Structure prediction request, 153 residues.
Amino acid sequence: MNRHEYMCQAIELACENVKEKGGRPFGAVIVKDGDVVATGVNEVMETHDPTTHAEMQAIRAASRALQTADLSDCVLFASGEPCPMCLSAIYWANIKDVYYSYTEEDAAQIGLSTKYVYEQIALPKEERDIHLRRMDKRAFASDPFALWKKRET
Ligand SMILES: [Zn+2]
Prediction:
């Protein structure tokens, strides 16, 4: 299979998701050494879980299938341009090559824009709509970081 065929599969998954499950129009395919090792579709409507984007589902499935959190030897084909959450997951999975077809602008035209989150992340912490407040670790008895450090030595 070539890049066009992998993307075709991601787009077909997105279409099936809309037609058969009433889901959002996103699909993703993860390829390793030329083989499709995992696929995913957007399952937010079905699961009521806001993290079940197509890329997230494909990354979860690929990690389970390959029994590793390091997908650096994989390529991701996403029908739509990844949102900030999925892009972050792509970083965490060490995936270096990502292809997408439908752009953020295309998604905006059908009411599925992720621009707001990209804009929020680019703002200084204090200007974001989400209040991210630090609570001093010294107020708590347990120290998970110390446990981790001890485990390492
Ligand atoms: Zn996403």
User: Anything to note?
Assistant: The chain is about 45% helix and 15% strand.
